[in-house]
Amino acid sequence: MTDPFAGWSVPPVGITGSPLDRADHLRRDPGAMVALRSRPDARWLVLDELKPVLTQGDPANILWAYRSDVPHDAVSVFLGLDGEAPRFAAAASGADLVADFGGRIVDARAAASLLGDGRAEIIAQARSLLDWHARHKFCAVCGGQTVLNKAGYARTCQACSAEHFPRTDPVVIMLAVKGDHALVGRQPGFPKRFYSALAGFVEPGESLEEAVARELHEEAGIRVNRVRYLASQPWPFPSSLMIAAFAEATGFEITLDDDELEEARWVTKDEVRAALTGTGEWFAPPPMAIAHTLLKAWVEN
Ligand SMILES: [Zn+2]
Predict the structure, then answer these.
(1) Distance in Å, CA 147 to ligand 1 centroid
(2) Centroid of ligand 1 to alpha carbon of 163 (angstroms)
(3) Smallest Cα–Cα separation from 71: which of 98, 105, 51, 44?
(4) Per the CB 3.0–4.6 Å rule, which of 32, 165, 191, 235 could disulfide with 240?
(5) What is the pTM of this model?
(6) pLDDT tens by residue, 152-187
(7) What confidence score (pLDDT) does residue 1 get?
(8) How far apart are the CA of 159 and the centre of ligand 1, in A?
(9) Nearest to residue 83, comparing CAs of 126, 42, 139?
(10) Over the stretch 94-123, which tens digit does the pLDDT of each residue have?
């Protein structure tokens, strides 16, 4: 039988590969949730103002707290099962954990780059969910108060019963390629000599292919023919889904949108290889970012 995916090689994607089973069927069962919270092997990931508490050791790990370490009134969401062991996340102060267990409160982006083996995705899941709860205390329909529901995967309005669900905002991130060259750009505010693939939010009523073509034209004046999907990753700052693609450019001429980009340039595979290994004239995004995967896939395929 012919392999339908033959010829596709996707390098590792950061912030993916969570070891947890999200166990969606348990979220709708309040009795099951009470039982899971009471299990002796239940543990909580504490986020202090959206910053996860990690262990002090090297390599870094998530500091999984006991139920007794988490305040009763903390917003708590179900992350899933690690084997049979329930895992939750809670928004609470991390000061006591730091004092009692020698933990440390780490910026979520730094934590995601420190953690391997899919644990960065656990941080992503927890951060996106808890941030959403913090910003959706009131109903977008009637302004009434909402309460957490479905173990953290919904909020219900107490006044009009409308249900609200956590958002995921799609962002296309794309490498325009033509012949032996690919297009990278710099946003104002990027670190010095740092270049990445171009990116932008998908708009309502738009396909991913159309968003790729529109963003490349808006930001760099580049027109494209074919668009090919590569891979995706969650980007929990606050709740994006990055969708990486290649786009076949029809020409090399760049017309910059100065508000979006400070500079854009066509680069060769040799330049990208050097950038990915930190030996070039410019820097590429780190392995945690899917732009890294996209650039790597281009030079490897
Ligand atoms: Zn309402």
Answers:
(1) 11
(2) 8
(3) 44
(4) 235
(5) 0.95
(6) 999 999 999 999 999 999 999 999 999 999 999 999
(7) 65
(8) 5
(9) 42
(10) 999 999 999 999 999 999 999 988 999 999
User: What are the domain boundaries of the chain?
Assistant: 1-135, 136-166, 169-300
For residue 12, give both structure tokens: 């590792």
**What separation in Å is there between the alpha carbon of 33 and the centre of ligand 1?**
25
State in Å: Cα 50 to ligand 1 middle. Answer: 26
Question: How many Å apart are CA 238 and CA 221, to the nearest integer?
Answer: 29
C-alpha of residue 143 to centroid of ligand 1, in Å: 6
| Paired strand residues for 185 | 196, 264
Residues, the chain: 301
Q: How far is the CA of 140 from the centre of ligand 1 (A)?
A: 7
What is the C-alpha to C-alpha distance for residues 108 and 124, in angstroms, rounded to an integer?
Answer: 8
Q: Which residue, 67, 109, 111, is CA-closest to 90?
A: 67
Domain 169-300 classified CATH 3.40.50.300?
A: no
**Rounded-to-integer distance, Cα 293 and Cα 144, Å:** 43
Q: Which residue in the block uniquely carries the two structure tokens 């680069």?
A: 267
1-135 matches 169-300 in fold: yes
